[in-house]
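One such given next:

>
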Amino acid sequence: MPENPRAGDLRLEFDPALPISAAVDEIRALIAAHQVVVVAGETGSGKTTQLPKIALLAGRSRIAHTQPRRLAARTVATRIAQEMGVEIGDAVGYQVRFTRQATRRTKVKLMTDGILLAEIGHDRDLRHYDTIIIDEAHERSLNIDFLLGYLKQLLPRRPDLKVIITSATIDTARFAEHFGDAPIVEVSGRTYPVEIVYEPLEHENDLVDGIARAVTQLHALGEGDILVFCSGERDIRDAADAIEALKLRNTEVLPLFARLSAAEQDRVFRPHPGTMRVVLATNVAETSLTVPGIRYVVDPGFARMSRYSARTKVQRLPIEPVSQASANQRAGRCGRLGPGIAIRLYSEDDFLARPAFTEPEILRTNLASVILQMADARLGAIEDFPFVEPPDRSQVRDGLRLLKELGALQEDRASKGREHKPSAEGPRLTKTGRLLARLPIDPRLGRMLVEAGRRGAAWDVLPIVAALAIPDVRERPSEKQAEADALHRRFWSEDGAAHAAAGEAHGDRDPSDIAAIWRLWDYLRSQRNELSGNAFRRMCRDEFLNFLRIREWQDLVSQLREVVGELDLDTNAPDRDADHRRRRAKEPRTASGHTPDWEAVHTAVLSGLLSHVGLRDESSTAPKTQQRRGRRPMAEYLGARGARFAIQPGSAAAKAEPPLVMAVELVETSRLWARTVAPVTAEQVEEVGTHLITRQYSEPRWSVSGGQCVADERVSLLGVPIVAGRTVSYGRIDPVVARQMFIQSALVEGQWRTRHHFYARNEKVRAEAEELEERTRRRDIVVDDAAIHAFYDERIPADITSVAHFDRWWRDKRRVEDDYLDLAMADLVDDTDAVDADAFPDTWTVGPTDLPVSYVFAPGAHRDGVSVDVDVSVLNQVDPAPFTWQVPGLRDELATELIRSLPKAVRTRFVPAPDWGRRALTWLDDHPDRASLAFPDALAAALGALSGEPLDATLFNESALPDHLTVRYVITDGRRELGAGKDFESLRKQFAPRLNKRLNAAASDVAHPGAKKWEFGTIPATREVDRDPTPLVGYPALVDQGETVGVRIANTAAKASRWQARGLRRLVMLESPDPTRSVFIHLSNAEKIALSGGPYANLNALLADVRLKATGDLIAQHRVDPDTIRDEASFRRLVDMVRPDAAERMQAITRVAARILTRHAEVRAELARRPEGETRDDITAQLDNLVFDGFIAATPEPHFTRLDKYLHAVDVRLKGWTANPARELQNLSVIAELEDAYAAAVAVHEVGELPAAAVEAGWLLEELRVSLFAQSLGTAQPVSAKRVRGVLAALS
């Protein structure tokens, strides 16, 4: 084969056994004639190793050759260098992540496609290369698709650039079409016929048995090795156990998957004469690696595929059926050495129903990393990028969303608040984004490093980031899982890490897998320093740690440390010299000997995992049903955008179940699991997630304790409620609203705690203005709150939003103008001239007493109107008549309403009522002598005089008056309210016992407990007790106590008179000779019988009552005023006057009593024969009121003598009842109405304390009964129902 002179001393030979060797000249010519050439051929055709040499032969000298995997880049470079007879790193080199074996002399550089993509950032036209080979393009990885798209844009700018696309014979036309129908060269592989056998499983769970059965069948066929495709490591282990259990002769079982070490992978490629090998591999063996010696393939038809979930924003690894193309690739593995057999553990119909090709990675992955590189390289809007197959727009949005989450993209002002949309020039990077683009790691991990640098924790976070970028160094062999777990748990706490160095495996749990990674790193550094190389390897093996991955971890940490130094990420380092930091970064690190700032570390890691934050759902651990005791349900976490996940059981946080966590990975298998978890706080989330946080606020409210407007804040991160119900100041949210609420709530409504003098002065003025409204019963006098708000709003600076702000401002302002915020009455009252304050006095003078007056304007409330405070001590001294006149300001209205309460027939004489009311008040002003009357009486007199027709004051219906026109009395004891009401006499009755008690206690020198003769000295008519402000006045009097007579203090003069009369009567009787025996001797038998049948307990009791009445009658007969008997001398004179006539008077009363009781017995007997009903009830009540135990002494003259006539009238009524029941019913209705009215009128008085007018009203009712039911008997005075009603009205 001729060599190109430009190739120099390079050996460019082509193995004739390789199928591509036959097409060298054709490919060389196509490269010369076309910018793009597509070379299609199956694995084994030689295209990967021979194309770079063909390009050199075609005169190309700077060739970039990409591989999808690092292992392939390294091994292919080594193979090409061997074939060309050069050292690796010279004419042929390679570059993978963090490793570069190439120089300026390198003509062929193998690299991962990611490395070439990264070079675009600093070499936009790829001027370092004149030829680019994109190998294994059929895999359609993410990076390959972006390279193909970018090269399509680049080729017009680089007409000298040659691009060679290699692919298996899968959809090559798509690549040719992408580059304008580029020529395709088909290179046939060295293949033999492959027999396809379909052996579908009965059940999916029979997979391992199906593999074992297929291997047994193929093993019996003899020569050649067996390649079994499995979907994952667990399936490989299960299948290996099943095959080894078959104990097949001369058979070796080997696993092959990406996580195996290089040494374990190399075992597959080593010769094994005399032994049949069963290789259990993942889909890595489909195209990337050619396993030698394979004659048979077992294909279960499944593979674990990386697929991005648009719903949960999680990169999943589900097990899915492989495509037809992948199935054919698998079958083709056994046709290279000779005819092969491929057993498919599924049906042919299943095969035909599968998609023809595997979906490109760009259609099932997150595009964030490459979008970041594109943005850094300024490749324009992603929507305009020429993809081989444009990714789904939702995937593009998710990539942009992740970059926004990481704070890598600048916020477009036009789209702020909406989903991020890049501009026509493409997304623009922030400072953070530019740093991320220069970090050769996943953007999430890069974000952690950037944040760590800002927090001075870069060196602590760096090994954590490196660990998250590689497979886990901790191994968990299935046969020793418990032992491995126990050793790995040592790093779950600080104590555990310390015990690890001592060979112990215990310590308290720290629920942070992130901290566990750092402790493991620290432990490995210390062990590496203390142990030899072999001892360290043995330690790793014994503690289930993968030595090679640890080496990779260490290398990656070293490389990242250099990047951190070069990018100046360690911004908090004390030495600011960049060169010094770079030198420091390259220095090897030993065990730290310190504890990291875990808050800074976790915050830095959180910055890359904001969409992986979860809040514990408390309801998820509650038992769903009543069941037996058992394990508590595993806690679920509410994640971003509605996702729900649980912490993987192997995590340090699994049992702790922190309230808020972050997860490095969310992987969906049987459920969504969080792996590598650590607890975080809401404060940490708010620190690094401000750009993603949504804050919602409740309605603002005023906080008295805080002195500011506040609201409840709800903080959400991508739908996760980080903070719920936190109280925050509203001033930073909406200062205008906060200021308005401060003025309204604090200054206007008084909801604040202050000692400012201006405010106290303003409150006093406002109280005076509001009191004026209450007095005048007008709501149009005082300005509303809005006017007061405006007053303060005009004077207070705009930046004052809280009490604290105000205090600081006012502290200086008051020194200059202390009255700056003072309210004047003119500021509060609209028309001060329209209000007569004197018409609504503060006090009401009644006699010598000034009573406080208060006003309430609250229609419908019990306190509405005028209230007068009356001390219980002066309750007996106050005449209620003046209060009926009301205060001057309400007197016009009172007069008007009283006129309106008149019966219609009378009311029509006084229309319009307001005019007549004012005329009447004018008349009363001219007749001051009427001022002593109750106002209804005075008003009646005035109206009668003005109209010329007399008016009865009882016609006024005072109960119809509006409540506020009736004075309310508040009874106090000087300190507190005792009671209140509008009926003065009822209150007087209610509080009389209290007043009596106080009076008797205060005048104990006058009061006497009781005696049977005069032992009281001189009894004063009044007793005044000094009290402030009003003296307490009492009225001493004799009190009838039955067997004795005492002295007590009455609260009114009228009550004292009644007490004195009864007490004096009893004492005169006790001091006089008893004529009872003489009277008894002179009684006839009939009289004795009549007297014995009365209501008294016995005859002696009756005669004692007769004697008491006789004594009273004689005192009255001698015209002695009981109130004048105040000393023993006057008392003795009275006794002497009464003594001579006592027996005779007693005899006369006894005979009258006998007649009364005889008549009473007859009437009772007749009544008993009558039917029950209202009449019988009325007569029974009447008899009970006339004749009772003690009625003789209790009934004064002349009513005692007329009792017989009243009883006679009852007898006549009973006879007339039968004769004229209609008349009885008519008269009964009249008397019943009046009896009810009388009962209501006297109800306010104490029992036995009726005033004389009330007593006479009762006897007038008895006369009315005679007039109604026994008119023939005649009455003692003119009487009618109308007259009785008038008397009762006056009594009320």
In short: The chain has a mean pLDDT of 86. The two ends are 143 Å apart (CA to CA).
